[in-house]
Amino acid sequence: xxxNGALQVGRTALAVSQAALQVAGNNMANATTAGYHRxxxxxxxxxxxxxxxxxxxxxxxxxxSIHREIDTALQSxxxxxxxQHNRAQVDQQFLTAIEVLQNELTENDISSLLSTFFNxxxxxxxxxxxxxxxxxxxxEGVSLAGRISDLRHDYNVVIDDIDRSLGLSVEGINxxxxxxxxxxxxxxxxxxxxxxxxxxxxQRDLLIDELAQYMEVTAIEQQNGAVDVLVGSxxxxxxxxxxxVELRTESVGDEVEVSIRVAADGTHLSINAGSIxxxxxxxxxxxxxxxxxxxxFASQLxxxxxxxHTQGQGRTGFSSVTGTYSIDDTTANLNxxxxxxxxxxxxxxFFIHVTHEETGQRSSYQISVDGDAMSLDxxxxxxxxxxGIPNVTAGTSISNQLTLxxxxxxxxxxxxxxxxxxxxxxxxxxxxxxxxxxINVNSVLLNNSNYLAAGSGHIDGSNGTALALAGLKxxxxxxxxxxxxxxxxxxAVNDLAVRTSAAVADVESSGIVKDSLYSQIQSVSGVSLDExxxxxxxxxxxxxxxxxxxxxIDETIQTLLSLA
Length: 564
Hints:
- By secondary structure, the protein is an alpha+beta fold.
- The protein has helices at about 5-30, 70-100, 110-125, 130-190, 200-210, 275-310, 375-385, 420-425, 445, 465-470, 485-525, 530-564, and strands at about 40-45, 50, 55, 60-70, 220, 225-230, 235-240, 240, 245-250, 255-260, 320, 350-355, 360-370, 390-395, 400-405, 410-415, 430, 440.
- α2 (about 70-100) runs parallel beside α6 (about 275-310), α2 runs antiparallel to α11 and α3 packs antiparallel against α10.
C-alpha cells in the first residue's frame, strides 16, 4: 500500500468521523423537538485494494447511511391510539354536557318539576274551587313546560356546537392534507429514490399524527418515498395530490343528517375514531336520541294531560272555544298525514254539553268520531247538521283550527271522550304544542284560571278530573312502553349517566394505552442525551485517531523526502 493510499485511509476516517459528530450533535440539538426521530450513522469499509495475488488491503471507511430510527408498525399503533383517545375525550365532553344540562338531582330538574306539577293537582282536589291553588297548578305547568322547552333549546345548542366543530375540523383536515401532499413532493424530489430526507419525513410524520387526532388513518409508503393516506380503504392523499374532505348536510324528514365525504368524488368516509368520529357518534348516538327522548316525553305529557283535562269541567263553561292545533287539509281524514294532526284519533265519541246560563238547564249531545274515515269538514258537518246541536255552531278559524261558538246566554262544556278527538284537536286542553320545543300552558288558562278543569260530571265542587290528573303521575302509558312519565324520563337520565361513567373510564384507559405506546416509540426513536454524549466522545476519539494517523504518515513522507 502506498503512502498516498494511507493518507486516503486517514482522509476517509476524518470525513466519516466529522459526519458522525455532526449527526450526534444534531440529535442532541433536537432532543426536545416534537416529532424528531433519532438518527444513527452507519459505516461500511471502503472497497479493498488488491496488492498481490489474492491479498487485499483496506482503503478506509465509507459513510453507508444516516438512518432515521423508526418502527413503522409501532407508529401505526400509536396513531390508532391517538384516534381512540381523542374520540373518547369527545364522548366524555358531550355526554357530560348533556348530563349537566339535564341538571338532575336538583330542585329545578324535570323529575322534580314533574312531581311537583302532579302533586299540585292533588292539592287542587282538596279544594277544587280555590283560586290561589288553581293559579299554583297553572304556574307549575308553566314551570314544567318552560324547563322542558329550555332543555330542548339547550340540546339544539349542543347540536349546533357539534356541527360547528365538524366544520372547523374539516377545514383543519384539509389544511393538513395539503401539507402532507406538499411534503410528499419535497421528499420525492429530495431523495430521488436514494437516502432519506429525515427532517422532511419527521415533519410529514408529525402531520399524519396530527391528522390521526381527527380520524383513524393508514399511511402507506410508496417507492419514491411519498405516502398515500387512507381512511379505511378510501384514499384521501395519493402521492402529491390531496383529494380533500367535505362536510355534507342533508335534510331527511324533520331531521338533519351530516356526513364526511371525499371532496374529489363524494365518496362517503366511514369515520369511527378521532375527534371527527367522536363528534359524529355523539351527534347520532347521544344528542339526537336525547332530543327524541325529550320530544317523546313532552308529546306524551301533553296528550295524556290534555286527554283527561278535555273531559273535565272548570268553574265556568265556554262561550267560544278554539282548538290549539291547525289542520293542513280540512278534507283529509283526521288520522291521515295530510291533516297534520300530531295525535291519533280513535273510533269513538265525545259529549258536548250546552247549558243555559240563567236557568242552568243543560242539554247533552254525543258526537261520533272516526279518525280514519272523517275529515275536519266531516266533523263540523256532524256537529252542525247530523247531530244539529242547538245554540252551538262549529267551524274553522283562519288557521284551520276547529271552533265552537255558543249562542248568547249559553255555554259549552265537554265530557266522556273515548276517541281522544278533543285532545288531538286542542279543545279544552291544559297544554298547547306538540313537542318539547313548543310545549306551553294553554293561553286560555293563563288568561282565566276558571277554565282549569278540576271537576267531573258537571257537579259543582267536584274533583274527579283533578284526581285523575294527579293519578297520571304513576300511570303506565302505552305510548311510553308501559312506563309512567317519571319512569320513562328517569330511564333516559340513568342510561346517560351509565354512558357518561363508561366514557370517563374509556378516556383514562385509552390515555394509558396512548402514553404507553408513546413511551415505546421514544425508546426506539427518542434521543438519549447520555447515549449521544458517549457517541460524541467515541466519534471524537475516532477523529483524533485519524488525525494522528495522517500526522504519522506525513512525518514518514517528510522523512523520506529528506533522505532523497
